[in-house]
Write a structure and sequence with these properties.
Layout (H helix, E strand, L loop, with lengths): L1 E4 L6 H8 L5 E2 L3 H5 L7 H4 L1 H7 L19 H8 L5 H5 L4 H10 L5 H21 L4 E5 L7 H7 L4 E6 L2 H19 L9 H19 L8 E5 H6 L1 H12 L4 H14 L12 H10 L1 H7 L6
Parallel strand pairs: 1-3, 1-4, 2-3, 4-5
Helix pairs in contact: 10-11, 13-14
Length: 298
């Protein structure tokens, strides 16, 4: 597979939607997400019903959702296994326990980890068949915390990491938790300190990512910025293809350009950030501002 990494709200979905326009890549469909066990059987029969029930856009932003929109595999895995951070959103009374297991694999015994490995391999095998053997592109922000694990599971895998101004990530994540907890939580969640969850998660995830990818080769991992993808998307995509030695950019470029023309008027959510919180973000995430060259002045 080709894995798209990046903390949530860093532009992973935008990149995923663009790459899905290439005919050489396969991806997870909304139907495979909803019925991961049954992609190749009853899922096909239920497609018309599922298509009618799809929301017009994601709960957290204005990104459209339709029958052809690629989805992250974490939602499918949440339907297949107990070890997914989505269970922290469903059952916030045990938020930390579910979150630590689902994101960082903390407290998983060998048997539980083996079960997760069997599950993800089963999912990808079904998905490969569903996508007619095309090379899979998988987007999942959670995987930013465990690239070495994926590299061992899938020798030859490629990785694309997209990063974004940490100020923008933080404020977008506040909206993410506000919207999804209100929509999905089956229990009260007033006890959660959302800001601390964002601080701690980003810090541990980026720490793991930088440590685990330190020895990755340029042909194995490419990094791009959200701003470059926004300002010069075709140039950023060409960089990805060139560095990872992916074939077919000259063919895919036209499909990418056509899709990019359709989203020129997309309106991003806009939020404000209090000065005191901005100062705390700059202080606590200083390493990551400096590593990717972002200004610590709001």
């Amino acid at each position: 597979p080709i894995f798209i990494l990046g903390h949530r709200s860093s532009g992973t979905t935008n990149l995923y939607n663009i790459l899905a326009k290439s005919e050489q890549f396969g991806f997870l469909t909304p139907f495979a997400t909803a019925l991961p066990w049954d992609i190749l059987s009853i899922g096909t029969l239920m497609r018309p019903l599922l298509e009618r029930s799809l929301p017009k856009h994601r709960y957290i932003d204005n990104v459209a959702v339709d029958a052809a929109a690629p989805q992250e595999d974490e939602i499918a895995l949440a339907n297949m296994t107990a070890d997914s951070y989505y269970h922290a959103l469903y059952f916030p009374q045990a938020f930390k326990a579910f979150f630590d297991r689902g994101v960082f694999f903390k407290h998983l015994g060998p048997a539980e980890l083996d079960e997760w490995i069997i599950t993800i391999r089963r999912l990808y095998t079904k998905l490969s068949l569903d996508q007619n053997g095309r090379r899979l592109v998988i987007k999942n922000p959670v995987y930013t915390a465990r690239p070495q694990h994926l590299a061992r599971l899938f020798p030859g895998a490629k990785f694309i990491h997209i990063h974004r101004d940490p100020f923008k990530v933080f404020i977008s994540m506040q909206n993410f938790y506000k919207k999804l907890l209100a929509e999905f939580a089956l229990q009260p969640y007033d006890h959660l300190d959302i800001n601390e969850i964002i601080f701690d998660t980003y810090d541990e995830m980026m720490e793991r990512y930088l440590g685990e990818t330190a020895l990755f080769t340029p042909q194995q991992l490419v990094e791009i910025s959200y701003s470059d993808l926004q300002s010069e998307p075709l140039k950023a995509l060409e960089t990805i293809y060139d560095q990872l030695d992916l074939p077919g950019y000259d063919t895919d470029r036209a499909a990418f350009a056509a899709y990019l023309d359709t989203i020129q008027d997309y309106q991003k959510n806009e939020f404000t950030l209090p000065d005191d919180l901005a100062q705390e973000i700059a202080r606590r995430w200083r390493r990551y501002f400096d590593h990717w060259g972002y200004s610590r002045a709001l």
